[in-house]
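Re: the request from the purification team.
They wanted to know what the chain is likely to look like in 3D before they choose a buffer screen. I agreed to run a prediction and write the result into the notebook, where they can find it.
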Amino acid sequence: MITQPVSAGRFGRRRFLGTLGASLALPLVSGCGFRSSEPLPPPSRAGTRLDAVFPQVDSHPNIRNAHTGEQVALRFMANGRERRGPLHTLDWIFRDWRAEEAEDIDRRIYWTLAALTNEAKRNGHSGEITLLSGFRTAHTTRVLQSRSSGASSTSYHMLRRAADIRFEGIPPEEIARLAE
């Protein structure tokens, strides 16, 4: 499958639906389908579907930010403990690149992406993730709304609980299947 580079311009119905499908998969898998600004428990205590795969997941996603070109492939857990440095690096990759503002992203997003990466690799893909949208400030959301981009004023992106992604070489339908 040939993938088109992400551009700042318009995109068609197929890309919109693919992005929508990928962005919807993360809250479903990670159990983030609620709104709260409270700190979240670690994945092993979160009580989500991800708990079943948590012990089996290699916490080593390969993520490229489509807008900044930055790419990281790092392990954010070691010996059963979170590694602060790699998590801060991931938070920076997921930042609002327009405002250059980074926040602590819901760790379940990273665990979900790691689980999806593992499954993609088991199915013969590279597992490389392209991040299309991570954290967004309220100001960025208002700017996007003024451009009629469909950004919601109650977006999970502003709550640090959403990521729009694309896996290189995997159709959105397959990503949704892997997520389930």
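For the purification team: The first strand starts at residue 62 and ends at 65.
Please add any questions underneath this entry.
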